[in-house]
Design brief:
This protein has 11 helices and 4 strands, in the order H-H-H-H-H-H-H-E-H-H-E-H-E-E-H. It has 246 residues and is α/β, with parallel strands linked by helices. The protein folds into 2 domains: 73 residues, Winged helix-like DNA-binding domain superfamily/Winged helix DNA-binding domain (Arc Repressor Mutant, subunit A, Orthogonal Bundle); 155 residues, Rossmann fold. A 4-stranded parallel beta sheet has the order 1-2-3-4, covered by helices on one side. The protein is globular and about 60 Å long.
């Protein structure tokens, strides 16, 4: 469900005109908790449009039709090989977890950071993949690279992210942010496309299990999986380290 929410929010946030597709996205968001039980006709009624308009909109945001979009609602919030901990942290615990992650970043060998920086500099095209809430951090990395004079791509549509993988060559770079290992989940048909993609592959994660996939050329483990609650802050620090070594 989270990925669909982010896709719909991105659509309305990036709409220059409040056209019919804007109102469809808004209507679907307003009924997001009912979508799983909706038929095409009931979704059309809720959005005050024709069923054909709903199907066209679904194709526009990367789904085959309304049914495939509705099925995506079945993906649990925080779907991962690890259960997400949504319990608010006490301030002391937050700082403790963050400090543990920062210590891990400090232990990343300078040689690895410099190797990644050189790879970024040499890459013709850079695709940044951020899933669910990490799309925000992916865009922050995109902004930092732009300030360094390196243009990169960071699409907020999951399906367009997948399509971009088929367009790369050996001189390109894929930077993937997957903190808890969502790309291993059966809910996301990601790994096969990733294996087939050309270009260098960099993974930023907290999970030690992702290294077993043997599909990444470089892996940065920048935190503990049990400290995922402070992952957003941790990623910002890691990006600062890359920025200052560039």
């Amino acid at each position: 469900m989270e990925q669909l929410i982010y896709t719909l929010l991105a659509y309305i946030n990036n709409s220059l005109n409040k056209d019919i597709n804007y109102h469809v996205a808004k209507g679907l968001l307003e009924h997001i908790h009912e979508l799983e039980s909706f038929s095409l006709e009931s979704a059309a009624d809720a959005c005050h449009v024709a069923p054909s308009t709903i199907n066209r909109f679904c194709k526009r945001i990367g789904f085959r039709n309304f049914s495939s979009m509705r099925n995506s609602v079945n993906i649990p919030v925080g779907a991962s090989i690890h259960e997400a901990n949504n319990t608010p942290l006490h301030t002391n615990e937050l700082f403790m977890q963050l400090n543990e992650n920062l210590a891990i970043i400090d232990q990343i060998p300078t040689e690895q950071i410099d190797r990644i920086v050189q790879r970024i500099k040499k890459s013709n095209r850079i695709i940044i993949l951020g899933f669910e809430k990490y799309q925000v951090q992916a865009m922050e990395l995109q902004k930092k690279l732009l300030l360094l004079g390196k243009l990169s791509e960071c699409d907020t549509n999951f399906f367009k992210q997948m399509d971009a993988l088929t367009e790369l060559d050996e001189d390109d770079l894929i930077i993937t942010i997957s903190i808890q290992g969502n790309i291993l989940s059966s809910y996301f048909p990601f790994i096969e496309k990733f294996k087939a993609a050309k270009g260098q592959k960099l993974l930023i994660t907290f999970s030690g299990e992702l290294g077993k996939l043997a599909v990444f050329d470089e892996i940065i483990q920048c935190g503990k999986i049990e400290n995922s609650s402070v992952s957003s802050y941790t990623l910002l620090r890691l990006f600062d380290v890359l920025f200052y070594r560039y």
